[in-house]
Amino acid sequence: MSDEYLAQLCSRYLQKGILVDSNILLLWVVGRLNPNRIETFKRTRDFTVEDFELLNQLLAKFTKVITTPHILTEVYNLANQLNSRDREGFLFCLSQLISSTFNEQQVPAKQLIQNPKFTTFGVTDCGIMKVAAGRFLVLTDDFKLASYLTAIGIDMLNFNHLRFRT
């Protein structure tokens, strides 16, 4: 991915918003809570503090950070693996982001299961497809989802491509 393409893609969505998938949102919240915890928490240890800093810089450019109830549920469930003290801090940080930063978009699961790809992707990813289509840039590290979004014409950034750019 060239710097020029990345800049063009981001500028197209700076005012519209970026929809952040579960693993990346988890990284962002854990990093905001305690960047040193990123590399020791089971669910974020594939990331680094530098990844968090890159993510923080990227998200700061957008006027809206989009999420869905299904993404938030996944993030909450993943965070349940933190120890009780860290989990309490995580939930406080998450609640602050929900009330001040996130723009939550809701699509009933009853609608999402109508997507022919529901059995392949599940409710959260079908929600991402529905909410983002023609409206928001998607940020994910899920290769299968990223490939499918590209195939159906939904703009997305694979965070792994950003992390490992030279």
What do you see in this structure?
There is one protein chain. With 166 residues, this protein is α/β, with parallel strands linked by helices. The protein has a single domain (3-163), classed as Rossmann fold (3-Layer(aba) Sandwich), CATH 3.40.50.1010. 58% of the residues lie in helices and 10% in strands. It has nine helices and five strands; from the N terminus they run αβααβααβααβαβα. Helix 8 (143-151) links the parallel strand 4 (137-140) and strand 5 (156-158). Helix 2 (22-33) crosses helix 4 and helix 2 (22-33) crosses helix 5 (84-100). The longest helix is centred in the middle third of the chain and has 17 residues, at 84-100.
Question: Topology of this protein?
Answer:
Layout: H1 3-13, E1 18-20, H2 22-33, H3 49-60, E2 65-67, H4 69-79, H5 84-100, E3 102-104, H6 109-112, H7 118-132, E4 137-140, H8 143-151, E5 156-158, H9 159-163
